[in-house]
């Protein structure tokens, strides 16, 4: 960048001056270049009021314009202006045909945006602004066009040629080449365009839609991965059925395709009729995939499928509306996963992610509302805020409207806006119109950043039998937003009497939604004989931080009696957090720690209780993560958090050793692997027990872990055993097992990623030098985002004591990587930068070191927009 990149603003939005009736593309793919021929039929947009508007097309600087003509007349330099990312034609006719040929270089495209090569195949990634790296086109989501695409390539190397829609023609060309033409009848923005050419195998199935149409389903991968596609296919069919039943949404083309690619910046992409997936989100089988891997495949396949309506049929007007499709679609996939597996477990997992990572983002320098007002690089806004908080906001709408009116609202939204590019405001309006409810104040969730805080206090008047709950809300400032207006917060709650029974509330039920709309509000409950214990934020009804001065005994009481599964888990978390925070505050390396016995007895009763859902037992017994404890700290004490977690885990293991071993044994069944919810639950409980036992560092537990590794018929059991041994102090066993694992799995790239992450997160001495060594290993590929994440991101996020080493070596390491990656793959570079952006959360010494590295990146030369935005906002 010679000039400082500029922000673009929502307030500057203008309707496009031209509409694109049809887009005809022809790709000629070669080993050293690709030629793209485009034929665009363009008309003036009646909605644009400008008198003689110019035609503006995007085109990345890497695109070579070979020829351009208008209605058959070749244009010269005098007929258009090419400046930065824009090509402008001053006064074109009302209706005309523009043809162009561009030359691009997929073979050397390391940014993985636009057309690029993943291994031996060609593929595309166009969201958000990748299409401008292919040809000249209005690369904005409100310009929708009908695409017809011909792909031509060498027949031997690229037997499979795919694009959006239906194949309509194919043929042979000279020089051993062939071509296929695809037509997609649904108008779509350029970001949903896709093309794949490669030597691919596929599995095929069929789905009959609710109106009786036949849809062919194909999932493509390299031949070696053909045995890992069945689970994605089952998930896809389940998702298609679920969307018909839950939202009345039917699939609309005759064919639905998914392609697995090795090189991919994100998880997956919802291109119309031709999803492109990171292999990590689509390949799965028992031998190579962990339980959480299976669940990710199910969720991501569903997510991309659901986008066909929430994203493709109804798309975004501009990128400030990103959460319109992403928040809604995450909400939809979360509900799907909840229906397929355990609802409470899914909720616990999502809330954990939100409370650790999204809350941290909301409190950091990149904080933004779910509908941002400005950005420099849109790729930096594919965030937990847009996705996860966005989903929470949709969830709150459903809570406020109730299920039936929410469905009425979504029906209206899809019907009213089918084929349009719309805004989050249109979504809310549809919900209001369908329900008759007023969501004016609720809209603040869309334009105010930061995590609201609820401070709840109570009072009991025994004589009057009256219980008062006072709720105060506030929200800390975020960049550009000092003062916030009051949010409309649905606070689901219940009351428990002294026997642990649910009290009937004014609505006649045991759970009620309090509408918190003011900065301070009091809710009164009468007819109570004793002071109840409140159960607050049931089901995590709003993405807020809730403070209520629970006594530890009250938390144990809630753990035992609350009828809300989420709150039972949360009570256990709060108890552990409260105890651990006290230990952290009091931490000194030479001072002995003492564990409050109540945590152990609470855990013991959960282990002993009959009939509890095993998945929930293992969630309850899982200590709050390092990341969560850090998020809760004003100033993160990395060493104290690490030491306290180790101490608490060890103490629990010492005191519950026999029970843990017994539960391990009970759940160590010799039955064939299945990724169903019950089996996943059983394995997670068993493996949790094993991890407590391994914290004892005894020979007996080492033998148990090694035995599990040896006999495992699935990657879940094998991986857990390997992690535990690899991270233990039994160094020679660790070495031997890691070597064995690599030898078994060196041919399976995704398994090798596990092997890399296990080593990158190994907390033993010498972590950074091991990481540097790993980066020299033949299994590492510095151009592949999955490998980069497995080593670098894992080290920075999951090996805190080493990343935060007081000599600054961890920070320097990350900054060096960012500087290298900045030109190679800007999206990945900017994402990997996140840990450094949190510098204000650490001690003065660490702050200085982190800040110095951010400054070094800033001064390192030509920064991409992506990295520039994150670095400059972090240094404010
Ligand atoms: N739109 C994709 C999804 O959430 C994510 C994505 C964004 C993929 C940008 C690639 C590039 O489903
Ligand atoms: Zn999405």
Automatic annotation (TrEMBL):
Signal peptide: none annotated. It comes from Neptuniibacter pectenicola. Its cofactor is Zn(2+). CDD domains: M1_APN. Residues 107-192 form the Aminopeptidase N-like N-terminal domain. Residues 231-442 form the Peptidase M1 membrane alanine aminopeptidase domain. NCBIfam families: pepN_proteo (TIGR02414). PANTHER family: PUROMYCIN-SENSITIVE AMINOPEPTIDASE. Residues 450-548 form the Peptidase M1 alanyl aminopeptidase Ig-like fold domain. It catalyses: Release of an N-terminal amino acid, Xaa-|-Yaa- from a peptide, amide or arylamide. Xaa is preferably Ala, but may be most amino acids including Pro (slow action). When a terminal hydrophobic residue is followed by a prolyl residue, the two may be released as an intact Xaa-Pro dipeptide. Residues 553-875 form the Peptidase M1 alanyl aminopeptidase C-terminal domain. Belongs to the peptidase M1 family. One of its GO terms (molecular function) is alanyl aminopeptidase activity. Keywords: Aminopeptidase, Hydrolase, Metal-binding, Metalloprotease, Protease, Zinc. This is Aminopeptidase N. The keyword Hydrolase applies. Its EC number is 3.4.11.2. It holds the Pfam family Peptidase_M1_N.
